[in-house]
Design goal:
Blueprint (H helix, E strand, L loop, with lengths): L1 E4 L5 E8 L2 H15 L3 H20 L7 E8 L3 E8 L16 H9 L4 E6 L2 E9 L1
Antiparallel strand pairs: 1-2, 2-3, 3-4, 4-6, 5-6
Helix pairs in contact: 1-2, 2-3
């Protein structure tokens, strides 16, 4: 896990974890400690948890790989990213009437303030939270 401070008040945090369910909790705790609490920290931890859980359960990382959690705090926003090993994409609408991880992310970050990029070789889920 690394934490850096950059010019113009930008702070960065990075941690890489084995893609195992119990590691999601460790990643959440590390991010929460780095952020230092508050409502936006709680929201950021929840978003990171959703992304990390998807990596552990649905990406090729689950086959002995890892996920990387990155956070950046700047003047205008807090950005959360989770990288994994990619794999076949099976996203899509669910018809069971209950919210799912990406619904939670949309509720917190807002439409257009989060996304997923990459392919079967590697994927990054990201969200931008206003300050």
């Amino acid at each position: 896990m690394t934490t850096t401070a950059a010019a113009a008040g930008i702070r960065r945090h990075t941690g890489t974890y084995p893609a195992e369910p119990r590691q999601v909790g460790l990643a959440r705790a590390a991010l929460a400690g780095w952020l230092g609490g508050g409502p936006q920290a709680d929201e950021a931890v929840l978003v990171a948890s959703e992304f990390a859980t998807n990596s552990v359960l649905h990406s090729s990382s689950r086959e002995g790989g890892a996920f990387t959690l990155r956070a950046q705090v700047g003047r205008d926003c807090l950005r959360i990213e989770v990288d994994d090993a990619g794999g076949p994409w099976q996203g899509g609408a669910r018809d069971d009437g209950r919210p799912h991880g990406f619904d939670v992310v949309t509720a917190i970050a807002g439409a257009g303030n989060w996304g997923i990029g990459g392919d079967v070789h590697g994927r990054t889920a990201w969200a931008r939270l206003g300050r």
